[in-house]
Structures are given as structure tokens and as C-alpha cells.
Q: What sequence folds into this?
């Protein structure tokens, strides 16, 4: 979401005549787009703004801006933490940035904008040589998970009209984009109660169908769905829509029903198992990843074991594991943060180890097989090494040229590691549909 917001900021400022420099030392303005989900992210951003403050001694025109969720969360306090900060702009006011940069003195823009501006996304400039893009379909979140600061910083759900999204997708494909990733805090609750379900199809599924029908689009992904809204019609389109990728990032947060209830997640581990079974029945070899929080207040060894047992039952091929971090203003911040740091660390390690094993196992099956890969860009290692992703979201390295970016090619897998596959492009190959 922040990556997409950053792109939006960039195109807005380029339209206003600013230029992007790749060398931070050359910049007259540095804008930190921040995250508040965990305290550590905020500490880092404040530290970075402190380092930047020194630049004011050598460049009197130098400006520092803090934008995004931390701007919304800490507001005015940021000027007290670091007087060198010039402007603070929340996620709902980003479209005001070009004006704010010109302000003198401390400028604060948080809270609701004077004019609602949901359609601000569709003013984008695209980097050349890019074949994938994020497409934001909604803003905010109506859920109130006990630990989460996002509804406070990003506000309630607002859905972009379906026609605007489809228009933007067409624009993207005309500019060389082959794969779009739809973004929303709860992307599968798109439309909420405001848009009708038609023929048993939820608004999100209707949107997926419209996008699937656009000739230029080759692949569609989405991030992140909420298990509560993972309806059967969504599972069905995973089977029926040819361009919808065979991978799902489904944040489950915990495997303990007691902790899930305390988190106000409104589902159980049984519901998760049911969704995953249905998905695996519908889509052979679907790639499944998740987010987990360890050390939520009062999480016992037994609760944690339930998470481990759910991990063992599901065998995720990727997982982000987070140590619980109390966030001011959330419901759970009122509770004692009583799981010791060393225990959080230990639980974090155990889950990461588990996911390394399951991801190795998942990758192993591709050895010697040929899979379809969308060539995305140059890999960090090797002069001619390019990278791309399979539909089930495995990253693959192989030799190719930059001119091949945007092509979908068959790659035979020669070796694998926990996070990566390596292979060779094969001409006229028959890809294994069940695997690719
Ligand atoms: N502490 C730790 N992790 C959190 N997340 C959200 N809020 C917190 C918090 N207070 C994690 C969740 C979410 C991901 C984006 O960040 O797992 O899915
Ligand atoms: Fe936060 Fe829960 Fe909304 Fe996700 S669904 S953004 S975790 S409140």
C-alpha cells in the first residue's frame, strides 16, 4: 500500500515540476513515507529524520517531510520530536503534497480532507521497463482488530467505482503492464454493503471478472484478503478465471481460537482450514502465504502450539511473522503486554524455521519441471540474470535479456532454495499446467 502511495506521490510531484533523484544527497526535499503498524517502524523513521536534519546546515532550502500512517498517528508531536521536520501529511491528504512543499514553517495536514478525493490514484506516470503494477481499489478499513492501528490512520472503507478501476487497468495495459495486483486493506470486502451481490457474485468477484476480460492483462493478483470475507464465489473464480494467479496471501494472525477471539478476527482455525481445503481442491498447487502475530497479550505456550499445529496442517510456502507491538489507541494497547521479548523472539524463530522447511518442500516439487514465468527485471546477481515469478508466486532466476521484460516464458527448474528457484528458459516447451 505504501509502495503504491509512494508512486502516487512521485507522479503528483513530477506533474508539479519536481524531479526525482536517485542520490539522496542531491535532494532538496526528502519525504519519508511511513508505517505505524509496529513501533519499530516508527522508531526507524524518526531516527532517519534526525539524520536528515543535519543537511539543513549545508542546504538552507532543504526540506524534510513525514507522510503516511505515522504522520496521521503522531501529527503535531513529530515537530516536537524533530523540529527540523517541515511538513507532516497523513494518508488521506497526500494529494495536497505539491502545495504543502511550498509552505513555509511547519505544515500539518492530517485528518479528513476538505474535499473527498478517492479518485486521486488515477494520475500515474509509469516507469519504463515495468510490467507489473499495483492498483488500489479501496482505502481504509472498517474492521477493528484489537491490535491494529490502520483504521485509525487510514480511516473507514471507501471503495473506488468499478468503472474507474477498469479504466485504470486499461491505462496500465496500454503502458506495458502485464500483471496487476489489486490492493486494499481487506481487498475481498471491496464494495462492502454499498455495492450489490449479483447472481451470487460479490462486488470483488465482479471486479475480478471485468478485469479478467481485458485483453492486455495477463495476470491478476490481490492483497490482502480477510478470511471472514473469503466467500465461495471467490474460490470458484480462482478455478474459472484464467488470469487470476494461483496464489493467495491470507493473513491468519494466530492458530488459537482464544487468541483469534481476543484479536476480534471473527473467524476460527476451523474456518481457515475449510477455506484452505476448498482452495486446494479448486486450484491444484495453489501457493499460500500468511501473516502471523506472536506474543499477543496473554498468549500461552498452549495457544502458540495451536498456531504451530495450524502451520503444520497448512504448510504455508511463505509467512511474515511479527512480534506483537502495542499501538497507542488500539484496544489491545489497554492490555498488559505480558509476553516477554525473549519468548516472542523464540516463537518467531520457531515459525520461521517451520516455514523454511515447508517452503523448501514446496519448491522441491518443481525440480526438473517447466513452469511459466513472467520476466520482471534484472536480478541483483549476475550480469544477464533476470528474475520473474510463477503464477503460484515462486521467484525464479534465469538467464535472459532486459528486452525480454514483460514476456511470459517457460523455464525449466534446475535448482531450488528456501526463497528462490533457478532455471533455464526452454523453447517450445510444454509447461506443466498443474505446476505453473
Ligand atoms: N503488532 C504486530 N504485528 C502487527 N500487525 C498489525 N498490527 C500489529 C501489531 N500491533 C501485522 C499483522 C498484519 C500485518 C500487516 O502486520 O500480521 O497482517
Ligand atoms: Fe488492521 Fe484488521 Fe483492518 Fe487488517 S482487517 S487493516 S488487521 S483492522
A:
Amino acid at each position: 500500500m505504501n509502495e503504491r502511495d509512494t508512486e502516487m506521490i512521485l507522479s503528483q510531484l513530477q506533474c508539479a515540476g519536481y524531479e526525482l533523484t536517485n542520490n539522496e544527497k542531491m535532494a532538496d526535499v526528502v519525504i519519508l513515507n511511513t508505517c505505524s503498524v509496529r513501533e519499530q517502524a516508527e522508531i526507524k523513521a524518526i531516527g532517519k529524520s534526525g539524520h536528515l536534519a543535519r543537511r539543513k546546515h549545508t542546504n538552507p532550502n532543504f526540506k524534510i517531510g513525514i507522510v503516511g500512517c505515522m504522520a496521521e498517528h503522531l501529527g503535531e508531536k513529530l515537530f516536537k520530536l524533530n523540529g527540523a521536520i517541515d511538513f507532516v501529511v497523513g494518508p488521506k491528504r497526500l494529494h495536497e503534497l505539491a502545495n504543502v512543499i511550498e509552505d513555509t514553517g511547519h505544515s500539518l495536514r492530517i485528518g479528513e480532507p476538505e474535499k473527498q478525493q478517492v479518485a486521486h490514484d488515477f494520475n500515474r506516470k509509469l516507469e519504463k521497463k515495468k510490467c507489473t503494477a499495483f492498483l488500489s481499489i479501496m482505502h481504509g478499513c472498517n474492521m477493528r482488530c484489537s491490535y491494529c492501528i490502520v483504521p485509525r490512520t487510514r480511516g473507514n472503507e471507501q471503495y473506488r467505482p468499478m468503472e474507474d478501476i477498469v479504466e485504470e487497468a486499461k491505462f496500465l495495459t496500454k503502458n506495458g503492464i502485464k500483471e496487476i495486483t489489486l490492493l486494499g486493506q481487506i481487498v475481498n470486502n471491496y464494495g462492502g454493503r454499498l455495492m450489490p451481490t449479483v447472481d451470487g457474485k460479490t462486488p470483488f468477484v465482479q471486479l475480478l471478472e471485468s478485469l479478467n476480460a481485458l485483453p492486455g492483462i495477463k495476470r491478476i493478483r490481490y492483497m490482502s484478503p480477510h478470511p471472514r470475507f473469503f466467500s465461495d464465489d471467490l474460490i470458484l473464480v480462482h478455478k474459472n478465471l484464467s488470469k487470476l494467479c494461483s496464489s493467495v496471501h491470507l493473513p491468519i494472525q494466530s492458530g488459537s481460537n482464544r487468541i483469534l477471539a481476543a484479536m476480534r478476527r471473527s473467524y476460527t482455525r476451523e474456518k481457515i482450514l475449510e477455506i484452505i481445503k476448498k482452495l486446494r481442491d479448486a486450484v491444484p498447487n495453489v501457493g499460500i502465504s500468511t501473516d502471523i502475530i506472536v506474543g499477543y497479550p496473554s498468549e500461552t505456550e498452549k495457544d502458540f502450539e495451536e498456531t504451530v499445529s495450524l502451520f503444520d496442517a497448512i504448510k504455508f510456502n511463505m509467512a511474515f511473522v511479527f512480534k506483537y507491538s502495542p499501538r497507542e489507541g488500539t484496544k489491545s494497547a489497554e492490555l498488559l503486554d505480558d509476553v516477554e521479548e525473549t519468548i516472542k523472539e523464540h516463537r518467531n524463530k520457531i515459525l520461521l524455521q517451520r516455514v523454511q522447511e515447508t517452503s523448501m518442500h514446496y519448491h522441491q516439487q518443481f525440480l526438473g519441471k517447466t513452469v511459466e514465468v513472467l520476466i520482471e527485471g534484472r536480478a541483483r546477481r549476475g550480469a544477464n540474470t533476470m528474475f520473474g515469478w510463477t503464477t503460484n508466486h515462486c521467484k525464479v532466476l534465469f538467464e535472459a535479456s532486459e528486452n525480454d521484460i514483460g514476456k511470459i516464458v517457460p523455464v525449466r527448474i534446475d535448482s531450488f532454495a528456501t526463497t528462490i528457484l533457478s532455471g533455464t528458459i526452454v523453447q517450445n516447451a510444454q509447461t506443466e499446467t498443474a505446476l505453473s
Observations:
- Residues 126-245 form a domain with the Transcription Regulator spoIIAA fold (CATH 3.30.750.210).
- The chain has a mean pLDDT of 94.
